[in-house]
Amino acid sequence: MSVKIRVNHASSGDGLRFIAVLLLFALILSLMPMPAGPEAQTAADRNAKGSDHFDGNRYFNPDVTPDHTAGSPPRGGSYVWLRRWLIGVDWPEWKTGQEVTPGPRPASRVSGGDLAVIPVGHATFLIQMDGLNILTDPIWSMRCSPVSWAGPKRHQPPGLRFEDLPPIDAILVSHNHYDHLDRPTLRDLARKGAPLAVTPLGNRALIRETGIPDVEELDWWQSYRLSPQVTVTLVPARHFSARTFWDRDKTLWGGFVLSGPSGNVYFAGDTGYGPHFREIARRFSPIRVAILPIAPFRPRTSAEPPVVYRSIVHMGPAEAVQAHLDLGPEVSIAAHFRVFQLGPDGYDDAVDELAAAMKTHEIKAESFVVPVFGQLVALPEMPERTTYQAAR
Fold it and tell me: What is the mean pLDDT of the chain?
């Protein structure tokens, strides 16, 4: 998600609050540097010819109609869009001050053929596989925002203490939204010695500024070898990108599939539901683990209109269950819930509706797991005769 500054308890003064918050938001953006053009443009140029998701200027989702392009506000205009996201009218209050004990210090590494997945919170997961330690969309910050004193704040602390992290071999950054590309955390990881980040086209310059020495950019379906045994492939997602008002969809977004002796692990990043799940399954089946977002979404009790911008580029629980069925993994793990309030769903809505959708489709609890942050997710043993391979 891009940055959202929200004022609770809408009242007759909402208009004044909106103007004040909008001015604050404009001030924040005015203090930010313009996006680094030359390197991002070079990345874009590589994809300008013959691409089904780049028009020579901006990236787009090839499977949505022009009326529902990911970068466009809903009908009603920019004022309605900004008012909804900045103030959060009719959004329920989330729990605060949750007392959560961080999980135990993870193993330094796992051996070849072994796989361990530990959720840290939101879209941050520590994936230990085949001798490598990999972090997805790492954020240990208290807010997902361009500044530390405003913007969406954490409602649960990270499930692992930053100082307890093992040596990190690779960081996967799915797109440039503040809750997925958190520069303070990336700077801390650079100081800790993280050598490599893998990201979609156009994000290299922004990540390099944090001090990470090696940043590999990929287009959809391109792969990069992390080790002699493990390959990462960028796969499509239905989403968008933006860190300011002027750089919408200038960089690419996506998910990742990690392939090694321990199996294929799919990390969806941030995505709406679409046909890309079936194509990922076709190319990477069997998938051992799928990490799928289940929020933000518009609950059935929400007062918002039946068609909203968010539904195009995010999945709710019912859509996540359908993605699970399309992908056919041995186990799916829920992500993107109960940490940052980024939509009109309540604190428990995503988890409750996921359980209801699983019951409707007769999916067992161990097949689609709601993880405890900081705790190792129990995974089924890998079948002895199963062979996992990179994209075909």
Answer: 83
**d(C-alpha 216, C-alpha 121), whole Å:** 25
d(CA 34, CA 206): 11
Give dist(CA 68, CA 61) in Å, integer: 10
CA pair distance 120, 110, nearest whole angstrom: 18
98 confidence band (pLDDT: 50, 70, 90): low
Return d(Cα 169, Cα 179) in angstroms, integer: 21
Strand order in the sheet with 331-335: 223-225, 231-235, 255-260, 263-267, 289-293, 331-335, 368-369
Separation of alpha carbons 256 and 230, rounded Å: 13
Tell me the CA distances in angstroms from 233 to 23, 114, 199, 214, one per residue in order: 41, 20, 10, 17
Instruction: Dig out the tokens for 117 from the structure.
Output: 């997945």
Q: How many CB atoms lie within 10 A of CB 329?
A: 26
Give the whole-angstrom CA distance, residue 47 versus residue 252: 10
| DSSP H or E segment with residue 333 | strand 331-335
> pLDDT, tens digit, for every residue of 166-222?
999 999 999 999 999 999 999 999 999 999 999 999 999 999 999 999 999 999 999
Distance in angstroms (rounded) separating the CA atoms of residues 278 and 280: 5
Q: How far apart are the first and last CA of the chain?
A: 31
Give the integer Cα–Cα distance in Å for 235 and 279: 9
- For 84-111, give the DSSP string: HHHH-TTPPPPP-----PPPPPPPS---
CA–CA separation, 153 vs 149, rounded Å? 9
* pTM for this prediction: 0.85
Radius of gyration of the chain (CA): 20
Give yes or no for a contact between 164 and 106, defined as CB atoms under 8 angstroms apart.
yes
262 neighbors 114 (Cβ within 8 angstroms): yes
CB 303 within 8 A of CB 260: no
Which parts of 226-348 fold into alpha helices (H)? 276-284, 310-313, 317-327
CB 44 within 8 A of CB 256: no
Residue 60 CA neighbour count, 13 Å, CB half: 17
Query: Strand runs (DSSP E) across 145-212, as ranges?
Result: 170-172, 196-200
Q: Which helix (H) or strand (E) holds 218?
A: strand 214-218
Look at residue 124 and tell me whether its pLDDT is greater than 90.
yes
